From TrEMBL:
InterPro entries: Cro/C1-type_HTH, Lambda_DNA-bd_dom_sf. PROSITE patterns: HTH_CROC1. This is Helix-turn-helix domain-containing protein. Transmembrane segments: none annotated. Residues 15-69 form the HTH cro/C1-type domain. Residues 72-94 are annotated as: Disordered. It comes from the Bacteria. It holds the Pfam family HTH_3.
Length: 94
């Protein structure tokens, strides 16, 4: 299942949820990652401070992966007037 995350703060519940779904404690995950348990706690508390390399390692250990998806911009709306519509019209018009 895909979980789009536009903000790094949204990683917090996802990482914890993935770890728990794999029935791993922070200490077990830390051992597999080669760090101390408090580092895993720090990552879960503030995932925006993790390096991309460590995030990729962590996700791999949780049987997950980072996916970068090219999202096309929304279609352009109806044509709009240019310029300041509140300004007076040029002399000789209206």
């Amino acid at each position: 299942m895909d979980y789009p995350l536009p903000l790094s703060s949204q990683l917090q519940p996802l990482l914890k949820s993935l770890r728990k779904a794999r029935r791993l404690t922070q200490a077990q995950l830390a051992q597999r990652l080669g760090v101390v348990q408090s580092r895993v706690a720090d990552i879960e508390r503030n995932p925006g401070a993790i390096s991309v390399e460590q995030l990729l390692q962590l996700l791999a250990l949780l049987d997950a992966q980072l996916v970068v998806r090219d999202v096309p911009p929304p279609p352009a709306g109806p044509a709009t007037l240019t310029g300041d519509v509140s300004a007076s019209p040029p002399r000789g018009q209206w």
